[in-house]
Amino acid sequence: MDNVGIMRIFSCMKNRYDIAIVGGGLNGCALALALASGGFTVALIEAHKTQGSAKTQFDGRSYALALASTRLLSVIGIWDQIAEHAQPMLEIKVTDGRPGEGPSPFWMHFDHAELEEGPMGYMIEDRHLRDAFLAAISNQPNITHFTGAPVIGQKGLGGAVEVEIEGEETVNASLLVGCDGRKSGTAQRAGITRSFKDYGQTALVAAIGHEKPHGGIAHQFFLPAGPLAILPLTGNRSSIVWAESHDRAAEISALPDEGFIEALQPAFGDFLGALSVAGARFSYPLNQTLADQLTADRLALIGDAAHGIHPIAGQGLNQGLRDGAALSEVLVDAKRRGEDIGAAPVLDRYADWRSFDRTTLALATDTFNSMFSNDNPLMRLGRDIGMGLVNAVPGLRRGFMREAAGLTGDVPRLLRGQPL
Amino acid sequence: MPKTKSTERLSPMTTTVDTAEIAKFEAMAAEWWDPNGKFKPLHMLNPCRLDYITRQIAAEFDRDLDAPKPFDGLRILDIGCGGGLLSEPMARLGADVVGADAAERNIPVAQVHADQSGLQIDYRHTTAEALAAAGEQFDAVLNMEVVEHVADPLAYLTACADLLKPGGLMTCSTINRNPKSFVVAILGAEYVMRWLPKGTHEWSKFITPDELFDLLSKAGLEPVDRKGFVFNPVAWSWSLSDRDLTVNYVTTSLKPA
Fold it and tell me: What distance in Å separates the CA atoms of residue A308 and residue B255, rounded to the nearest whole number?
């Protein structure tokens, strides 16, 4: 028996890791840190050169972190670094409105005072989150960070998967995780097809400065063209996510900052006083792209690579973090049992756990958007009554809040603030 | 870095067994390890069995399951190893594993899969009695879902006890004997769900937990723990139970030092 020779090949393989993560965005970073905390060795592969500057300028991008997501960030040592830069969302007001007409009499109001756990979530700027992740990753000996070269190939190799990075040595791992976004090359190379849906809208994203304080209140206006979310940042600033038709969005994008504010003003209203642009502006075409499978041979998908959804409920990053929390829990449990972490029975557990959540969330954001993005009088009456009802019944109201905070369902340990 | 094609990493048995045979073994190994195939019920139960076994061994031998290779230095026997569903995890945790099966065809199948997984496991076509007669000694013996199939349970368990070093541990699982286990394990699993081939189990050979504890004591072991394996049809998964030992259950016993 020449088993010893085989063992030697496995253990002496250079660049051998437990897990290779393709895509070093926020979800990939969080997953890498979670897995490293569970004792796994991780190769984190990012195609772009990563900007490691701690003094990065604010570029206008920010995220809504559900309460459960902040708990995960605490466990992996990130939250303490960024908490001082986070703006708690104390209240959420949802209003059905037409521009220039003001809100309809029917609206929903969610106040964190009704929720024993605290604020429903926090707003955090991209730069603070990213810098904290990069610092934590460089201090984590279990993570090897490859940056600046894309993955160009992947193939199964018996008990492992081999990942080819352009101009670099190959990396071997027991499991490959695709966190490479809506156009995931990892999923494509594995032959995973996607279901795609264009919403006919583009989201305009920007940070807005305003005269008056926001008081930690987030607003969601449902306008005929699409929703406008106003989310409180630290100081007298808010982040807006403003959905318009592709054509109108292209017009607005082309305007200089003053023109942009002029176009925004009727939808935004004047409750926060005079407005100004406080950072770069972005636009994203809105679509839903769901991978038809969450797993394949020695492969799991998380975040947008698995399911890119409508940003209407601000759940994109939160959903990706939830995927990562579930996957790392499944993997660390498997490792403690001595199971092969890349084997189908293990990956099936992750897929089973996440598929219910992702189906309901994709359907909910989809339905929500189509119900609210129109001016049909009957639809408007229907949704106004619905909102009035939710607002009037405390139990329903708390249910919505707990859902938004990520506290419902079969919650992974990390999202409950527990270590793996 | 070493470039290895999968064909080069085949079992070294290529020297003694022809390629068609190897292909057959690989196909059978794939069948054993397909979570949705013929052995689906075993795959569904496996995480729960492994949770129990790993925690019992870790507690007894004072090992930390979060450490790399926590079972390093332990010699473990997997009786009735089949395709290696328990042997491989034990080897991955660092144990020195012997997998024994009375069915000869399982041995090359398990071996091929262990080679593919890069694990070194000593698979043998043999029985507990033969290993005991040869004077083999182990820190732990995994005796899972076997005792309900043997002709003389006491003689079999005595052989298993002889295989343990003083202070060694044996996990032993089987199926309880009562009207519910008849309905669930035979009518349900074999006839309704068709999880197992009809005739896999004979109800009269099932053993109650008290009877098993009694047999283990007679075999010279000290039974220390018993838990139920309970199937939850809503979650569609198995879990461990302190109270419900009505159908599948597992025990731990120790050999006095």
Answer: 56
What residues of chain A, 17 to 46, have a C-beta less than 8 Å from chain B?
A: 39
Q: From the list B4, B93, B118, which residue is nearest A338 (CB)?
A: B93
pLDDT tens per residue, range A180-214: 999 999 999 999 999 998 888 899 999 999 999 99
Residue type, A56: T
What is the torsion angle, in degrees rounded to the nearest 10, for the CA atoms of residue B35, residue B36, residue B41 and residue B45? 30
pLDDT tens digits along B75-110: 999 999 999 999 999 999 999 999 999 888 899 999
Residue B8 CA to chain centroid, in angstroms? 30
DSSP string, A212-273: S--TTEEEEEEETTEEEEEEEETTTEEEEEEEEEHHHHHHHHHS-HHHHHHHHHHHH-STT-
3-state class (DSSP) for residue A59:
coil
pTM beyond 0.90, yes or no: no
Asked if B117 lies within 8 A of A157 by C-beta distance, the reply is no
Query: Tokens at residue A156, please?
Result: 């199964």
- Interface of B to A at Cβ within 8 Å reads 1-2, 4, 6, 9, 12-13, 33-35, 43, 46-47, 50-51, 54, 65-66, 68, 71, 88-93, 115-118, 120
Q: Burial, A322: exposed, middle or buried (Cβ in 10 Å; 0-12, 13-18, 19+)?
A: buried
Are B6 and A39 in contact (CB < 8 Å)? no
- Domain spans of chain B, in order of start: 6-254
**End-to-end CA, chain B:** 48
**Cα separation, A375 vs A101, whole angstroms:** 13
For residues A239 and A123, the answer to whether their CB atoms sit within 8 Å is yes
Q: What angle do CA B97, B102, B106 make, to 5 degrees?
A: 70
Torsion of CA B97, B103, B108, B112, to 10 degrees: -60
| Mean pLDDT, rounded, of chain A | 85
Question: Helices B40-60 and A344-372: crossing angle, nearest 10°?
Answer: 110
- For the cut 70, the answer to whether the pLDDT of residue B65 exceeds it is yes
A3-197+286-416: which CATH architecture? 3-Layer(bba) Sandwich (3.50)
Mapping DSSP to helix (H, G, I), strand (E, B) and coil, where does residue B69 land? coil
Rounded Cα–Cα distance for residues B164 and B20 (Å) = 39
Residue in B closest to A11 by C-alpha: B118
User: CATH number of B6-254: 3.40.50.150, 3.30.1380.10, 3.40.190.10, 3.40.50.920?
Assistant: 3.40.50.150
Q: Is A14 on the interface with B (CB under 8 A)?
A: yes
Nearest Cα residue to A10 out of B217, B118, B38, B221: B118
The pairing of strands A16-22 and A171-178 is parallel
Q: Which of B4, B35, B92 sits opposite A345 (nearest CB)?
A: B35
* A339/B1 touch (CB, cutoff 8 Å), yes or no: no
Rounded to whole angstroms, the Cα distance separating A329 from A75 reads 13
